[in-house]
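Entry 14. Structure prediction run on the chain below.
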Amino acid sequence: MSSNPEKCDVIIIGAGPAGLTAAIYSAWLGLKTTVLESGIVGGRAWLAPKIENFPGFPEGIKGNELVDKMRMQAERFKTEFQLDQEVVSIEKQDTIKRVITRKQTYEAPALIIATGTQRRKLRVEGETEFLGRGLSYCAVCDGPFFRRKDVAVVGNGEEAAIDALALSDIASKVTIVSQENQLAIEGKLLERLKNKANVEFVMGKVTEIVGDQVVKAIKIADSATQPSFERQVKGVFVALGGVPLTAIVHKAGIVTDRNGCLTIDRHQQTNLEGIFAAGDCTCGGMQVVTAAGEGAMAAMKASAYVRRNPA
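Output returned:
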């Protein structure tokens, strides 16, 4: 790692829709802007086969096409993208924010965290292979693609229940696979699910995602007897919760809620002055359009902060 930090006005961690929009606004406002990304530019949005609810695209647009347009727009305003940059530490020293990756150190007066969330994985055979081809971590995003089809929701909490209710109005049948020995869904959510004729509960664990080009079935081990059986489905929605970059932000002194979501005010600022957050890492709307809106707000407020506190 280089010992000489690279300096700019705004550092953005994450190049999903929130980070890309923040970069567009920050660079457009005349600030030297650097985006750090360890994975795919566009994040989960890049994997979406079609996004039909983003304003300005009445016929819909492929996820990779939308984020490529966002990146090109940010680059037109001279945003610098630093890829394959895994962040290992965030530090605040007076008005300067320091972000350390495995390759380089970056310094700026303002920092925007737009890391999204890493969805908790099933870690079974076929999960990686069928991502975007029948397997999804977002029922709201991808549910409409499975209209009048049989689907499975894997999870045992509020997120799984809400996803199953949403899908029950779209899919022919929804199978909730608990992944636990006992059902954790309760109260009104459980009552509403039981009143849905096309929702079924299975107490068991998914052991494999099966298919060829797309998902065709899941294998389930019954919680009581442990024999494995196969359930034919066209879609699998994993609802096991998200895993934000909790350890890194906690070490930096940034406050999160009990689920690890970054706590922000109405200006997207965290509890630390000059550090902002936007997109799924705040656990807000969890949509491309809401992430973009938060990214724009974060950049505008970061710009005002930089002008008050130049490096």
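Residues 246 and 260 are 6 Å apart (CA to CA).
Filed with the rest of this week's runs.
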